[in-house]
Design brief:
The complex is a heterodimer of chains A (106) and B (534).
Chain A (H helix, E strand, L loop, with lengths): L34 H4 L29 H14 L25
Chain B lengths: L6 H10 L7 H6 L9 E3 L7 E6 L6 E5 L4 E7 L27 E8 L6 E2 L5 E3 L4 E7 L2 E2 L14 E11 L4 E11 L9 E4 L2 E6 L4 E7 L5 E7 L7 H20 L16 H4 L3 H17 L3 H13 L2 H5 L2 E7 L4 E7 L1 H5 L8 E7 L4 E7 L3 H9 L1 H4 L19 H11 L5 H9 L20 E2 L12 E2 L5 E5 L6 E5 L14 E7 L5 E8 L6 E6 L2
Antiparallel strand pairs in B: 1-26, 2-3, 3-4, 4-5, 6-8, 7-8, 8-10, 9-10, 10-11, 12-13, 13-14, 14-15, 16-17, 17-18, 18-19, 20-22, 21-24, 22-23, 24-25, 25-26
Helix pairs in contact in B: 5-6, 9-12
Chain lengths: 106, 534
């Protein structure tokens, strides 16, 4: 089967390259158009056909309470206040036992 | 959307075409290009009041009596008359058109200020949803104020400031909030900010931000007080601990009677021992930011010494100048030195901005007024600095450089004019925090409809230098013609060119009606012109 958009001409040859039929494991390909491929591919989006249960939380669109300006302020604050680790500290494994941080020693 | 400038063909086009998504208000506004206040009645006979503002819903005109004790509210109406003759357009208007009463009906007059108080005529805030108005009266300002308790020096002192919450429909005073022996900057709503139903009042003298809520029935309720304490239970915690500290201090100091090096400072004066809550939050934010900049311990200490401890006293001496809401939980606070707090010209004084979250009581951001980072946020998201409440949709259409291409061009031209970038940034940052309700929502100030000289007239209600020449409003779209002119002052111009004259303009929010008021500085009666569409 040919992919819907894979062979069409476009400015950039890399456009739609992922939809080439040579790449059958592409999860973004919509399975509803081809029943045979449905078993190999997992649909990326959840389409509810009933309203008996709530949709998964990451599939619901909600309005962010903070406006974009506040989000920018918080983003910059996080970047500023996140303690930067020196190169040597990256070698210390961070799981399991607690390590004494260089910042608290004096 | 409209292909022609003719109003009739635009009306026909409107019947068959829909505007592009999200532009219905902008398309409707284009009709203001056709309906303009082109006719002027000069020097109209009107009562000698100082006219303040039209409310944003266009229902009321607020004015104060000359003696600054009474509030008089008018309802703007539209002139109507009929003419039986054939060539009506050429006729002069009937004499009753030249009367103030044909345009405005007095609704009521209320005395707000008692004997030794005066209404602050530059102060007025309105709540659109429930048609409330907030006014302020105060006693005289005293400059050499005695310092008591936590009051800072250098700030003048007013014995009594009262905020009156009024129902505009009938002039009934619903609630009052009084501040004693305090100083709040009332001119042009500087010390107060209204967002939705939340009111922030900055007490400069006690360095406190009072947050109040205006309830639907008209009560002013205290929500929180930010300054010495940030959370509601901070004071309780300190008092309960200070008692136990006092006893342990006494027992600790006694064994070392001659030791003066000791603990740094003794807790003799409880007031001076702690910095105020908000100051502590600010200092710890600055400290943490600098601490995290360096990773090497030695560099860290060096950097702190240079940048933090060297300026520590300067940071401690900062005072809150002005405050605005960014949303219901966040405040933008401007800090500066004591000298700049009261003066109008703040260019020479360093200023700092902090974003403070009232719920978590944390400082989220801190910038100096020359910070480029803050300027870039201001340039991209200016509209979000003008915190507009949910209820007033029209406030979202006031031209700013974030929502209007022409305003952005103007900003860019000022930026590229020359001079240093940091001077430009400081100049832009001087307008932050924005004053509350200081811009008129009139579509005649929409930069995409009209081009006008911003130095002579703009949406911001401020007194400006008056010129004899009329102020031209030229359309932005082809054929770029002059649409209307606003000329303040008498028709023939003033003979005496030497006296300084200032004008102010009051535009109705949606009708083609405007008042221009020209005043000289010698208490002569002002000249009021009415501009409307004939």
């Amino acid at each position: 089967m040919g992919s819907m958009l894979g062979d069409w001409p476009s400015f950039d040859p890399h456009n739609f390259s992922q939809l080439r039929p040579s790449d059958p494991s592409n999860p973004s390909f919509d399975p509803s158009f081809n029943e045979e491929m449905a078993t190999k591919l997992t649909p990326a989006t959840y389409r509810p056909t009933h309203s008996r249960t709530l949709p998964p939380p990451d599939q619901v669109i909600t309005t962010e309470a903070k406006n974009i300006l506040m989000r920018n302020f918080y983003q910059r604050a996080e970047d500023k206040l996140r303690p930067k680790r020196a190169a040597s500290e990256h070698l210390i494994p961070e799981h399991g036992c607690k390590q004494l941080r260089a910042s608290t020693s004096n | 959307m409209f292909r022609s400038i003719n109003v009739t063909s635009r009306i026909f086009e409107r019947q068959i075409r829909t505007p592009a998504p999200g532009t219905s208000v902008h398309c409707a506004r284009r009709f203001y290009e056709n309906i303009v206040p082109s006719f002027t009645v000069y020097d109209i006979e009107c009562p000698d009041h100082s006219f303040r503002k039209f409310t944003d819903d266009g229902q009321y005109l607020i004015s104060f009596s000359r003696n600054h004790q009474d509030l008089i509210v008018y309802r703007p109406m539209w002139l109507s008359f009929s003419c039986k003759e054939e060539d009506c357009c050429r006729h002069d208007l009937p004499p009753k058109a030249k009367r103030f009463e044909s345009f405005f009906t007095q609704l009521y007059s209320v005395t707000l200020a008692s004997c030794n108080e005066l209404i602050c005529k530059d102060f007025f805030l309105s709540m659109e949803g429930n048609q409330f108005g907030l006014f302020a009266t105060s006693t005289a300002q005293i400059h050499d104020a005695p310092t008591t308790g936590r009051a800072i020096q250098g700030v003048p002192f007013i014995e009594k400031i009262t905020f009156h919450l009024l129902r505009l429909e009938d002039g009934v005073v619903l609630d009052e909030k009084v501040f004693h022996n305090d100083f709040i900057n009332l001119a042009h709503n500087m010390g107060v900010f209204l967002y939705d139903d939340l009111l922030a009042i900055v007490s400069l003298r006690y360095q406190t931000i009072h947050i109040l809520q205006v309830r639907d029935l008209g009560n002013l309720v205290d929500v929180r007080t930010i300054g010495s304490f940030c959370r509601e239970d901070d004071e309780l915690f300190l008092i309960s601990n200070s008692q136990s500290l006092a006893t342990s201090e006494r027992s600790r100091l006694n064994p070392f009677p001659g030791n003066q090096v000791g603990n740094g400072h003794n807790q003799v004066n409880q007031d001076d021992s702690f910095l105020s809550g908000i100051k502590q939050r600010l200092l710890s934010f600055i400290f943490q930011g600098m601490w995290n900049e360096e990773t090497d311990q030695a560099m860290r200490v060096q950097s702190l010494k240079k940048k933090f401890f060297f300026h520590f006293q300067d940071y401690v001496d900062l005072i809150i100048w002005k405050v605005q809401f960014l949303d219901r939980h966040h405040l933008l606070i401007k800090f500066g030195s004591v000298d700049g707090g009261v003066s109008r010209n703040v260019d020479h004084h360093p200023a700092f901005f902090a974003v403070y979250n009232m719920e978590t009581t944390e400082v989220v951001a801190f910038y100096q007024n020359s910070a480029e980072e803050l300027y870039f946020l201001f340039e991209k998201f200016c509209d979000h600095f003008h915190a507009t409440s949910r209820n007033s949709l029209h406030m979202n259409f006031i031209s700013s450089h974030s929502n209007n291409v022409y305003a952005l061009e103007q900003l860019r031209s000022i930026k590229n004019k020359g001079g240093s970038f940091s001077q430009f940034v400081k100049k832009m940052m001087a307008s932050l925090p924005f004053g509350c309700q200081s811009q008129s929502p009139s579509p005649y100030f929409d930069q995409s409809l009209f081009r006008y000289d911003e130095k002579l007239i703009s949406a911001t209600d401020r007194h400006r230098q008056s010129t004899d020449h009329p102020i031209k409003f030229i359309s932005r779209r082809p054929p770029y013609t002059l649409k209307f002119k606003i000329k303040p002052g008498p028709e023939a111009g003033t003979i005496d060119g030497r006296t300084k004259r200032i004008s102010s303009f009051l535009f109705h929010p949606f009708l083609p009606l405007a008042l221009s008021i020209q005043q000289t500085l010698f208490l002569q009666p002002s000249v009021v012109n009415i501009h409307f569409r004939r």
